[in-house]
Specification:
The chain is mainly alpha-helical and 277 residues long. 58% of the residues lie in helices and 8% in strands. It has a 3-stranded antiparallel β-sheet with strand order 1-4-5, with no helix packed on it. The radius of gyration is 31 Å and the shape is elongated.
């Protein structure tokens, strides 16, 4: 009885029509995608600007709304795209372009990957120089993937931190899962690491500890990951030893101050006794 009522009710028909409209709205034409990317290029400084959080969020929302209006204006089918649909489509374009770019580099004799569409090529050119970030809604973890074709990792040591680098003409991929739909934190882009002028030779295992700052940083940037991690641990040990020495000196200083105060008290007591005599 209830099945027949709901299957024939207006509510059921409206629900089915709404679901059908949502499904149809998921398809963007290439013209819409190109308009989307060109509009994003125009409003990119506003979307990526970082200043006052509230003001920036409002400005970004307004910029995305203008992009959405332009996409809707060029839609020949008359379908209306929402702001969230446009933002999600922008992320999908970047992720798909990045995936194709990576597949093109990894193919070794197999069938070539599908070519980039004009909108995907524009997406890569707009985001060149930015890290590759693929956002997953609801995520909360982050990891870095950085390997070369032969599995060898290259690293750089900067300000006490280890930074992984790609070999020449490789793509650096970073995956960040954040529970935030901010465009800058959930955007995918391709970073080409230019190492054409960088030497691939490794320096000897025993690195001098008395090098100057510039020479040390220059040599450390050429170390393999294992050797660099060893240097990093050695520096951490030296730092801990210095901190322990500092703590001991501070304790010795306090001990001497206490001893000095005790001697001064004893001296005053002796003077007081002499005065009483």
């Amino acid at each position: 009885m209830y099945k027949d009522i709901f299957n024939g009710s207006p509510i059921s028909r409206v629900t089915m029509e709404t679901q059908s409209e949502k499904k149809r709205a998921a398809y963007f034409t290439e013209a819409e995608l190109e308009v989307l990317m060109h509009a994003y290029e125009e409003f990119k400084p506003i979307i990526l600007k970082r200043s006052n959080p509230a003001a920036s969020a409002k400005a970004r929302e307004l910029a995305w709304q203008k992009i959405t209006d332009r996409v809707n204006a060029c839609n020949p089918s008359g379908a209306t795209r929402t702001l969230s649909q446009v933002k999600m489509k922008h992320k999908n374009i970047l992720q798909k372009a990045n995936r194709k770019k990576t597949e093109a580099r990894l193919t070794g004799g197999g069938p070539p990957p599908p070519p980039l569409t004009p909108s995907e090529e524009l997406a890569l050119s707009l985001n060149k120089g930015r890290p590759v970030v693929a956002g997953i809604p609801g995520g909360s973890s982050s990891h870095i993937l950085c390997t070369t074709s032969d599995g060898e990792k290259r690293v750089k040591y900067t300000d006490g931190r280890i930074v992984l680098l790609d070999s020449p003409e490789r793509t650096q991929s970073v995956t960040v899962d954040e529970d935030d739909d901010d465009d800058e934190e959930t955007t995918s882009a391709v970073t080409e690491v230019d190492n054409a002028g960088r030497s691939t030779e490794y320096i000897p295992r025993d690195l001098p500890t008395d090098e100057g700052p510039s020479a040390s940083a220059h040599n450390l940037s050429r170390l393999p990951a294992k050797e660099l991690y060893k240097v990093h641990l050695q520096k951490q040990i030296r730092k801990s030893d210095m901190e322990m020495d500092l703590i001991q000196l501070q304790m010795e200083e306090k001990r001497l101050l206490i001893k000095k105060a005790a001697l001064e008290i004893e001296l005053l007591e002796n003077r007081l006794k002499e005065m009483k005599k």
